[in-house]
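Notebook entry, structure prediction.
Reason for the run: the old model in the group folder had no record of what sequence produced it. Starting over properly, with the input documented here first.
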Amino acid sequence: IVQQIALRDDTIVGNRSAKIAAIMALSHFPLETTRGVLLKILHETDDVGIGMRSALALVQVGELDISFKFIKEHYSSYEVLDNVVSALMIINTPDAIDILRQLSYHKNPTYALDALAALSLLGYCDFAFEGFKRYTNTDIGSTLHMVAWCLVYYIGTPEAIDVAMSICQDKYTHI
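New structure, fully documented this time:
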């Protein structure tokens, strides 16, 4: 039934949301039939949002090459980048790392910090540390909170902990 819902025409009112939910559900079933349904959707849709959901689901079922081509081509026009960051982290190729580096400069600090955290987890700790430090002068409390947390959790060096403590003491005392 989930596969049938995923294959429905998303131009009919009400079908788009159900189709997206079905695509997301399919990402939890790494079967060959699931892969086929997701590839069909990816190749046949003109909707970047539907295509991206399908590409992200394909990453979850282990189809990295085809999904990465779509992600690489369309990530800049996709509005919800947290799942893209997670997918790029799984793909973990030099091209995926390059996109994560680009996303670490995103105008939305949430996406930039997500990309930096992913890079840190993939071993690019020096790059991530410098990226986190770019946000230590912001006046946005939630961003400072996240930076301090990321410095301690993802970097964890004495220097990173000192920077996090400085944020806590100087900028945002209730972290």
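Summary: The radius of gyration is 19 Å.
The old model has been moved to the deprecated folder.
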